[in-house]
């Protein structure tokens, strides 16, 4: 991935040992014979797709899930030869390319199979397309709606030399909640679908991170391990993970400008912050164009273990914080991570701006270089 911004001290520091720990610990908890496919969509949740994939394989992952075909092609181009499942619906015109590259497709309707056949026969006559049938048991996003439609599609799928029936799966919408009623409703729909299946394909999978952490009895023989692999709790703060998740992402920068702001003077667009007394203010080279949300005005960063308030509007490329006293330019500033015993988690940042850590992690832009530890 192209990165710019290497001549500026703003960076995401990714601890590969943390990713290794999270995946290896989860893998060790799984029933024997259960595969772990690491979900590396959206540039590995912002952590870097190929670096995460490399660590994941070392930690015991035997395959990958991505959201779109381009992400799968990136892994193939980087030399990964493990199974890769594209979780979203790919346009049928690319079925031949997927077959040729041994990339598995998610299919949610019989129409798709019909529309994809010509492309496979033309582009990949000797290598069938591996298909995972997606079942909509209550997520309401993609997948078969009724067992009858599934049964008909399985008949068509297994009769055609263009396809190999490799997997079947569903996705839960509330596996990360203490209230399990909706989860159980989805389980019973899943069972109704599975009852019409003449034989089970190689991979039967239902678990995202939350399902595998809190409902592992229903795992099937493969899990799609995503956010927890990056050390983030899928439930936010609602449920406690069965083992310590180690966050892999740290966001840091350095002070590039320091001044004493005189009482009565204001800061940033709209002059929304006015100093009540003389105070020390640092300018940081990061802004909303880097994925550090403008809504974080009033939140804080860490300087030398002190929580320092973000004052005034966050600009596209810069923002200001109030210091307890003067610090020199070049002083490290921690926006996410630990500093002298104090911590700001991605969860804290997400809570402040009313979103989830998933959105923030994948929202840091290409202008922020990823630097790898361990
Ligand atoms: C993104 C995704 C996952 C991974 O979810 P996490 O909550 O990050 O573990 C699993 N399955 C599907 C279908 C997904 O879209």
UniProtKB/TrEMBL annotation:
UniProt GO BP: D-alanine biosynthetic process; peptidoglycan biosynthetic process
Its UniProt pathway annotation is:
Amino-acid biosynthesis; D-alanine biosynthesis; D-alanine from L-alanine: step 1/1
**What organism does the UniProt record list as the source?**
Secundilactobacillus similis DSM 23365 = JCM 2765
- Protein name, entry field: Alanine racemase
Cofactor(s) named in the record? pyridoxal 5'-phosphate
Regarding protein family, the annotation reads: Belongs to the alanine racemase family.
Any one GO CC term of the record: cytosol
Question: What Pfam families does this protein map onto?
Answer: Ala_racemase_C, Ala_racemase_N
Q: List UniProt keywords, sorted A-Z.
A: Isomerase, Pyridoxal phosphate
Which Gene3D superfamilies has this protein been placed in?
A: Alanine racemase (3.20.20.10), Lyase, Ornithine Decarboxylase, Chain A, domain 1 (2.40.37.10)
